[in-house]
């Protein structure tokens, strides 16, 4: 893709040796980096992830030490000894697989535009336009797909054959649907079969898959709605009523902090629920 031109930070040399030993344990990092538009070497990316997580853990450890000194409570040292290693591991994996998260995000955007770009290409091919000119026409107006096509056209204009440029472009793209579609186009070019039929079949299959994904999403919303009603509406209202009844019988005093905690908990649940629904929603242009 015509990637975002990521500016890579030079990883500290002291982490490179250890990162090189860790690299064989993460064989998928090279693919994730390539598909996210990052040309950094896997060992350099691992070293940088170690460096970032080490910095974060060091600052957090210093905070716990300062709390223990100023508050004169050694429990903070014990708490820090438990939390800091956990945060180091969490930070390392978050930084390490950030390119994969970006690649998945880009893949969803590609798949939302892909059937319309391919349908446009199909119209051009039916009109007797060569494949190269057809690719030029869809290099604008189709978001991430157009960015990818423009990148491929640059390679062709630089002297590579259409087949070679297509092969390299397919490997670097994060979307499985895109790779599958363009492999079929590539096979048609290699074997000399009718490109028109291949494109028609590909477009039809993608549209069918999108319709199925919308139906699946609709079915998934039913249990999500039930869960929302239970946790967001029924449980809080009945829970507060139950707490008030218990307090009236037992004389237990319920402080404001309890209600504030419930409000904060409900707000966090609402945010989490909206994020889950948003990430599950298929990116389909209507």
Helix and strand topology:
Elements: H1 13-22, H2 29-35, H3 42-70, H4 75-96, H5 98-126, H6 131-137, H7 143-157, H8 162-172, H9 176-191, H10 195-250, H11 256-280
Average pLDDT, rounded to a whole number, is: 82
Elements, N to C (H/E)? HHHHHHHHHHH
* Fraction in beta strands: under 5%
- Give the structural class: mainly alpha
Binned, the helix content reads: over 70%
Number of strands: 0
* Alpha plus pi helix count: 11
The dominant shape is flat
Computed Rg = 27 Å
Can you summarize the main beta sheet?
Answer: none
Uncertain parts: 1-7
End-to-end separation: 24 Å
Tally the structural domains. Answer: 3
Structure description:
The chain has eleven helices and no strands. It has helices at 13-22, 29-35, 42-70, 75-96, 98-126, 131-137, 143-157, 162-172, 176-191, 195-250, 256-280. The longest helix has 56 residues, at 195-250. It is flat. It starts with 12 loop residues before the first helix and ends in a 6-residue tail after the last helix.
Quick overview of this protein structure:
By secondary structure, the chain is mainly α. Helix content is 79%, strand content 0%.
């Amino acid at each position: 893709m015509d990637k975002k031109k990521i500016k890579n930070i030079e990883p500290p040399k002291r982490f490179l040796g250890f990162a090189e030993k860790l690299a064989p344990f993460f064989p998928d990092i090279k693919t994730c980096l390539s598909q996210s538009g990052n040309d950094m070497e896997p060992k350099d990316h691992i070293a940088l992830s170690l460096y970032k997580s080490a910095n974060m853990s060091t600052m957090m450890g210093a905070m716990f030490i300062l709390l223990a000194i100023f508050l004169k409570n050694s429990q903070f040292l014990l708490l820090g000894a438990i939390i800091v290693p956990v945060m180091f591991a969490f930070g390392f994996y978050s930084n390490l697989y950030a390119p994969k998260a970006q690649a998945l995000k880009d893949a969803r955007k590609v798949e939302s535009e892909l059937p319309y770009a391919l349908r446009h290409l199909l119209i051009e091919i039916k009109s007797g336009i060569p494949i190269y000119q057809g690719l030029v026409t869809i290099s604008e107006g189709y978001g991430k797909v157009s960015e990818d096509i423009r990148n491929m056209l640059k390679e062709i204009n630089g002297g590579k054959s259409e087949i070679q440029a297509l092969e390299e472009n397919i490997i670097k793209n994060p979307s499985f649907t895109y790779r599958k579609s363009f492999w079929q186009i590539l096979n048609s070019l290699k074997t000399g079969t009718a490109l028109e039929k291949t494109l028609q079949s590909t477009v039809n299959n993608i549209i069918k898959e999108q319709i199925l994904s919308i139906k699946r999403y609709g079915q998934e919303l039913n249990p999500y709605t039930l869960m929302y009603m239970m946790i967001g509406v029924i449980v809080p209202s009945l829970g507060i009523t139950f707490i008030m009844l218990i307090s009236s019988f037992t004389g237990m005093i319920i402080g404001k902090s309890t209600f504030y905690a419930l409000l904060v908990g409900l707000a966090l649940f609402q945010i989490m629920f909206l994020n889950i629904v948003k990430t599950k929603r298929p990116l389909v242009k209507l």
